[in-house]
Task: structure prediction
Amino acid sequence: MAEMVNLRNARKRAKRRQDDQHADANRLAHGQSKHRRKLDAAQQAKASRDLDLHRIDKGGGR
Result:
């Protein structure tokens, strides 16, 4: 025989799990100061520019 499940409690657990995931996403998005976010963005942009500067141009026009 199957185990009985209280649907009300199952819905509450699912909502709690969803709220926790939403809170984790907000912590990632808003957990840093504005200065730190700008610094991280600038470092990422510099790393991207440096990588592009090291590309080898093969010519050929393609």
Remarks:
- The chain is about 70% helix and 0% strand.
